[in-house]
């Protein structure tokens, strides 16, 4: 997708709070040294941060071993004196990283770290940005948590890299069998291969947001929810036997149903982490611990809904009912483990580049996705932002929460596909309804 310019990058941004002894202006050099040390340790621990990608334009791209890595190609530290510069710098850096590609993929791993630091301040903003073939969204969270915990690493800009051959995690379809029933296989293949010129589109296709390859510019908006409200919202979700993810899925549905009155239905998805179902310490990979590794292990649950919902007095009854159903469907998918999953069909695709090119010529299927990375520890603020993904969901809603702190809700979209007013209306609805739910 990166070489076809269908997707550029993902960002997990967190606010770090250095020890008070390193927060003074005169200790800036020591603070930077400590931070680079931590990055070096994480790189040496995580094999996917050490490898390049070769054959990116071929049918068979592959990770390639690199002998060394220069941190100067991956870490950009900006210090400033005026605290008023932080917010515009943060937004500018986020926009730049979401729309920036990756060069020298065969000789340089596809990840970057952007540090925004007001000299003498008690905190600094750290943006971790990566090319999705290297790993998934949960890996971004793992990166920050590991960086916060690492100490006393290398004091050199250039790292000599070990041979990662015996530690590089295999693709999920290789690591585990993915059994499929004949009915599931046939239904999946028919959905993919049936001629659209004979069989009409389903009413839940995102006909309101046709796929456009260019121009590629990501727009995003965010808002924060305080800890007291988050606690009350999560408590209400438990009372109604749902989760925050299920609730946000339905709130998006209600907002878009009101905004796009000509639509008869929508399809969305919820990505979730495979680490909890992939095997550990297998005979072929005895050192493999999926829960600790940064790699790409995402699958998703599709939701198709056509609901006549309006902002009426009983809207919450509808929301809680559908949210509980969403939660049950996601749980059922999780409980099924590796059975009847689209990953099992991946081995049937011989050329993913051609596959993605063909996807760009179809009608968009997904209207939105909701991605929840859960809680992060040892941080003051955390935010997940996805760049536009040309053939996938028109709107990407991301949730990330600091343990005992604020929750950040972000929505991103491709500028030429989604009207700015629609994106801002959606975010206004979500902010208002979440605060009302937690009041």
Automatic annotation (TrEMBL):
Write down the Pfam families for this protein, in alphabetical order. AATase
- Where are the residues of the annotated region Disordered? 142-163
Q: Which residues form a coiled coil?
A: none
List GO molecular-function terms, semicolon-separated. N-acetyltransferase activity
**What protein am I looking at?**
Alcohol acetyltransferase
